[in-house]
């Protein structure tokens, strides 16, 4: 690790100011990606601005419109414990990493990093969540822009994530055996106006929606409805844990299982 | 009634008090006054010519005390191979020099070419990054078959080939084996890979060196399984420091699994650096360095043929193996694929013909050496996979085909077709026990239940035999070993009757501190808590050979027994004097020396006191003191054997394998501490299951280690393994060591991979995938799915 300064502001405005002061400042959520990167000397920021001491970015609540609002610096463990109004989301959070990861890692950190194998991007895109930053509100459909790439501007931080709560939902994660990130993960959510299916871990472009499946499931919310569909392995991640074809196959299997589990 | 003390009892491990409460003292915990830190500059490329190394900037960096490159070590020796293998044509193996730091060329990613010593680790790291090395990258060889082709890039230019040796065992049996296979009614052929494994000890390697300019004495604290061997290698081969001026201390060591048997260049570097700067120097590997530079395990590519009669009677096994030795010969890398592998290729079977050919191959990868099991897992896997395949082809029950070919109890001692003399065993009893443990009769019902849930269920079995307690020095010497393989112990009785036992074995997870006292206490009739074990310090212990190859109890434990017997014999002399009797009339039972046929006796403690306060003592007949040393060189290997079964479920939609049941019936001969033995088996099984399902060491074509962190290298976690059923009640005691023990440390890792793979193949066959007869380990979901859909 190279030497760096660290600031722990307690207000969003202060964090934003610290980040805009210097182009060498970097926001630090739970540090589950950034700290290992620093330890391997693969990054050398001059200053880290921790976002975990800001009370207004903490916790889970419900909006008047019935949406689940989660502070950007809320840990996975807190979401697992307090997002009971959205059981599929709570279950997803409860199965990220291990207890140490869940007690440090944050939802905002995960979404800002947009690891192509992370779980939260599937929940956010699959739920049609809104990403709230210090500057604006971004629809999930506009937010994810490819592997490790998002709509966030330099210095912009996720203060809150707002999830509409579906009628039924389920997340199926197939573990990569070593990291236990999603080798492929599928989030299915059924709303009154249709079904959303978001797939993580599979595509070289990061999390994506499977529109053919959404269309079929919106007509008939059953595993059988997607029996005739298939995803192509082209453009899917191929590595020592599985080929693109395997991931494409898993995406279909897991979609069916998520539909069955969501009921 | 289970025993509550002594041999056969299961006292909890006394060392666990400090390990489980964070009070273990490991090399990295030792803080010496004024210590400095070493950081290595390591090659990023797998094969490259070092054009220049500019250390001038690094030397000017804050806190830097010294910078070393390979140039500083050209006049010292190389790190040698401990075992000479001769090729079939009689030529000795190729032994390119393995320098302290790479010189001229780098040969694998992670090969160290420079080192910085600085006041702090961060300063050393900063300076290591400031070293400018001009390294001209060359094409790498990673694949063994490619490395053996004409015109392949060379790992070591000076030997003009990538083949280390081409070994045949037993060469005189080659023609008969070929003939038998040619004429056999049935031949099953299997090509397989025994996957390379990264050892992954929980504690990374670490070394701290101290030099005393006042005396010229060196001390090396290091993560070693055998401190005397490390000292010998450094003294006699590498740095030339006289053994009497070098103390090697291996304190608590957090797992070795073989990888800490060997001497590594980092140990020599910190010693040389400590002398140069006159201050202690510490190095601790990062996890990344562990992945890249610890000696890896396994890595064989094998073709095996089994010839048999139509009724399943074995006629011959013929094996052709390529064994990867990596970029340099690690100390026992040449023994592992040969005498620890080829000699076991008759398995538990009375097969008449066995021939093994092994070509050892240099590649631009980390060195490969013995890893838990070392050669025997490779032998067992090849045999037990091809037998399973043959049984399926012939329509014979997999246990029956094995039973039919077992060496029978009345045939021992039995000389196998691969040249070993098995002293004792009862393989049929192990299989009987196994069938009971796994409830084989209930399997079909369990299979149906799985199928109802959309899963495929399979049952896989195998047996194994291994050779451990390595071994008679005169035999291994003939076979090429450059070291003796005895062990040693000193039993020091203190004046107040308690005892310190100095042992040559080294405990890094095996529980010696608990088990050895059970032996001594049992023999002396005293409380085992009054016996203390001292190990790991060359200045305190006799010259022993350390712990590997499941040898500690069979070899060093035998030395402990012999030394304790000497103590008893001397005690008899002292007791005879105290009791005014003839020595020949003194008996020793339950801690009492007594005169036969009388009620006259004296306790062990009183004899000990008399030995050290010899006011009234027969000094003309016996020396004061009560301390005895024994060196023990075994007459043969020991031959643990077992029968293992694994029951799996396979999810046909994803290829995911789940282990539902695992049973291990082992014959370890007599057992000193059944709880520790069970624990050793559990650990071995986890490693075997890890190899079979998870551990996937992958180099790309350029020699980059793709699986170089836990993000990509899957170690078994608690939820990957089942609740094991283990049993060691089938006991045929070893006939040639005093305790009748065989060794249990490696059995689980040796015996488990084939049953896992056999089970998965059985499951897939039951699901109609009759074309899937083999899948190479690790059986990841992706590989299983691909096999089902190929």
From TrEMBL, chain A:
Domain spans labelled FAD-binding PCMH-type: 1-168
UniProt key word Nucleus:
no
Keywords, comma-separated and alphabetical: FAD, Flavoprotein, Oxidoreductase
Q: PROSITE patterns given for it?
A: FAD_PCMH
Gene3D superfamilies linked to this entry: 3.30.465.10, CO dehydrogenase flavoprotein, C-terminal domain (3.30.390.50), Uridine Diphospho-n-acetylenolpyruvylglucosamine Reductase, domain 2 (3.30.43.10)
* A GO molecular-function annotation: FAD binding
Question: Do you know which InterPro entries this protein is assigned to?
Answer: CO_DH_flav_C, CO_DH_flav_C_dom_sf, Diverse_Substr_Oxidored, FAD-bd_PCMH, FAD-bd_PCMH-like_sf, FAD-bd_PCMH_sub1, FAD-bd_PCMH_sub2, Mopterin_DH_FAD-bd
User: Where in the sequence is the signal peptide annotated?
Assistant: none
The protein's name in its UniProt record: Carbon monoxide dehydrogenase
Q: Which organism is it from?
A: Salibaculum griseiflavum
TrEMBL record, chain B:
* TM helices/strands, residue ranges: none
The reply to whether Oxidoreductase figures as a keyword in the UniProt entry is yes
* Name of the protein described by the UniProt record: Carbon monoxide dehydrogenase
SUPFAM superfamilies found in the cross-reference section: CO dehydrogenase molybdoprotein N-domain-like, Molybdenum cofactor-binding domain
Keyword Oxidoreductase recorded? yes
**Any one GO molecular function term:** iron ion binding
Residues of the Aldehyde oxidase/xanthine dehydrogenase a/b hammerhead domain: 21-139
Q: Which PANTHER family does the UniProt entry name for this protein?
A: ALDEHYDE OXIDASE 1-RELATED, XANTHINE DEHYDROGENASE
Q: Which UniProt keywords apply?
A: Molybdenum, Oxidoreductase
Q: What Gene3D superfamilies does the database record attribute to this sequence?
A: Aldehyde oxidase/xanthine dehydrogenase, a/b hammerhead (3.90.1170.50), Aldehyde oxidase/xanthine dehydrogenase, molybdopterin binding domain (3.30.365.10)
């Amino acid at each position: 690790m190279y030497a760096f300064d660290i600031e722990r502001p307690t207000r969003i405005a202060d964090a934003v100011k610290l980040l805009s002061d210097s182009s060498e400042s970097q926001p630090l959520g739970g540090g589950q990606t950034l700290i290992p990167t620093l330890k391997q000397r693969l990054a050398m920021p001059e200053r880290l601005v921790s976002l975990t001491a800001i009370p207004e970015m903490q916790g889970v609540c419900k909006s008047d419109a019935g949406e689940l609002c989660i502070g950007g610096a809320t840990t996975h463990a807190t979401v697992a414990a307090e997002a009971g109004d959205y059981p599929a989301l709570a279950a997803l959070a409860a199965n990220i990493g291990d207890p140490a990861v869940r007690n440090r890692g944050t939802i905002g950190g995960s979404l800002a990093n947009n690891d192509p194998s992370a779980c939260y991007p599937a929940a956010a895109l699959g739920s049609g969540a809104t990403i709230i930053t210090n500057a604006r509100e971004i629809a999930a459909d506009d937010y994810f822009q490819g592997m490790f790439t998002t709509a966030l501007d330099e210095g912009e931080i996720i203060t809150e994530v707002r999830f509409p709560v579906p009628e039924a939902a389920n997340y199926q994660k197939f573990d990569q055996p070593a990291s236990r990130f999603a080798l492929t993960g599928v989030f299915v959510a059924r709303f009154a106006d249709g079904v959303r299916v978001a797939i993580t871990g599979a595509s070289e472009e990061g999390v994506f929606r499977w529109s053919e499946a959404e269309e079929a499931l919106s007509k008939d919310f059953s595993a059988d409805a997607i029996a005739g569909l298939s995803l192509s392995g082209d453009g899917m991640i191929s590595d020592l844990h599985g080929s693109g074809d395997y991931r494409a196959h898993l995406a279909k299997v897991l979609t069916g299982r998520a539909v069955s589990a969501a009921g | 009634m289970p025993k509550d003390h002594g041999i056969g009892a299961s006292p909890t491990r006394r060392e666990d008090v400090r390990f489980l409460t964070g009070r273990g003292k490991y090399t990295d915990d030792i803080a010496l006054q004024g210590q400095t830190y070493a950081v290595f500059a390591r090659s990023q490329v797998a094969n490259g010519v070092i054009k220049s190394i500019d250390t001038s900037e690094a030397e000017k960096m804050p806190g830097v005390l010294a910078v070393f490159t390979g140039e500083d070590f050209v006049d010292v020796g190389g790190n040698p191979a401990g075992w000479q293998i001769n090729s079939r044509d009689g030529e000795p193996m190729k032994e390119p020099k393995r320098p302290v730091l790479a010189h001229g060329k780098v040969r694998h990613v992670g090969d160290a070419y420079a080192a910085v010593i600085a006041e702090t680790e961060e300063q050393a790291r900063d300076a290591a990054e400031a070293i400018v090395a001009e390294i001209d990258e060359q094409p790498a060889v990673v694949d063994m078959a490619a490395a053996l082709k004409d015109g392949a890039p060379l790992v070591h230019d000076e030997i003009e080939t990538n083949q280390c040796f081409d070994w045949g065992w037993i060469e005189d049996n080659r023609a008969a084996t070929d003939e038998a296979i040619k004429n056999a009614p049935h031949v099953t052929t299997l090509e397989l890979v025994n996957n390379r494994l990264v050892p992954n000890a929980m504690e990374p390697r670490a070394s701290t060196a101290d030099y005393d300019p006042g005396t010229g004495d060196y001390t090396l604290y290091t993560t070693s399984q055998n401190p005397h061997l490390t000292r010998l290698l450094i003294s006699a081969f590498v740095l030339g420091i006289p053994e009497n001026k070098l103390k090697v201390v291996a304190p608590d060591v957090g797992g070795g699994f073989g990888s800490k048997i060997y001497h590594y260049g980092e140990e020599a570097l910190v010693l040389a650096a400590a002398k140069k700067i006159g201050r202690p120097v510490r190095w601790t590997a990062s996890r990344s360095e562990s992945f890249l530079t610890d000696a890896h395990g396994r890595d064989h590519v094998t073709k095996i043929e089994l010839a048999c009669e139509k009724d399943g009677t074995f006629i011959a096994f013929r094996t052709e193996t390529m064994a990867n030795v990596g970029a340099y010969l690690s100390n026992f890398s040449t023994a592992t694929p040969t005498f620890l592998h080829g000699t076991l290729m008759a398995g538990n079977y009375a097969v008449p013909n066995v021939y093994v050919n092994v070509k050892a191959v240099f590649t631009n990868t980390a060195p490969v050496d013995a890893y838990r099991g070392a050669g025997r897992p490779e032998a067992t896997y090849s045999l037990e996979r091809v037998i399973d395949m043959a049984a399926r082809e012939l329509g014979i029950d997999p246990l029956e085909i094995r039973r039919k070919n077992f060496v029978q109890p009345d045939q021992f001692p039995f000389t196998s077709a691969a040249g070993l003399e098995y002293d004792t065993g009862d393989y049929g009893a192990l299989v009987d026990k196994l069938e009971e443990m796994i409830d084989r009769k209930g399997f079909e019902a369990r299979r149906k239940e799985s199928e109802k849930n959309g899963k495929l269920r399979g049952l896989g079995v195998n047996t194994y035999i291994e050779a451990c307690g390595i071994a008679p020095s005169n035999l291994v010497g003939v076979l090429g070993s450059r070291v003796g393989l005895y062990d040693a112990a000193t039993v020091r009785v203190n004046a107040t009757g308690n005892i310190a036992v100095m042992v040559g074995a080294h405990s890094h997870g095996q529980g010696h501190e608990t088990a050895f006292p059970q032996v001594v206490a049992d023999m002396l009739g005293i409380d085992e808590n009054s016996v203390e074990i001292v190990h790991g310090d060359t200045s305190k212990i006799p010259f022993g050979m350390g712990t590997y190859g499941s040898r500690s109890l069979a070899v060093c434990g035998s030395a402990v027994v012999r030394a304790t017997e000497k103590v008893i014999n001397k005690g008899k002399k002292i007791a005879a004097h105290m009791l005014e009797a003839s020595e020949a009339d003194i008996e020793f039972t339950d801690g009492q020396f007594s005169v036969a046929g009388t009620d006259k006796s004296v306790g062990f403690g009183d004899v000990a006191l008399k030995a050290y306060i010899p006011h009234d003592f027969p000094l003309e007949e016996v020396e004061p003191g009560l301390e005895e040393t024994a060196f023990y060189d075994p007459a043969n290997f020991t031959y643990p054997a077992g029968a293992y079964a694994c029951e799996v479920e396979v999810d046909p939609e994803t290829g995911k394998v789940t282990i539902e049941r695992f049973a291990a019936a082992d014959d370890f001969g007599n057992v000193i501490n059944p709880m520790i033995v069970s624990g050793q088996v559990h650990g071995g099984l986890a490693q075997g299951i890890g190899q079979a399902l998870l551990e996937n060491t992958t180099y790309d074509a350029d020699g980059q280690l793709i699986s170089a962190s836990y993000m990509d290298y899957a170690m078994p976690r608690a939820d990957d393994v089942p609740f094991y059923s283990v049993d060691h009640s089938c006991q045929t005691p070893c006939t040639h060591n005093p305790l009748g023990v065989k060794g249990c440390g490696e059995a689980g890792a040796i015996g488990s991979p084939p049953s896992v793979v056999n089970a998965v193949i059985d499951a897939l066959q039951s699901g109609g995938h009759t074309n899937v007869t083999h899948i190479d380990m690790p059986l990841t979901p992706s590989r299983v799915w691909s096999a089902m859909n190929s």
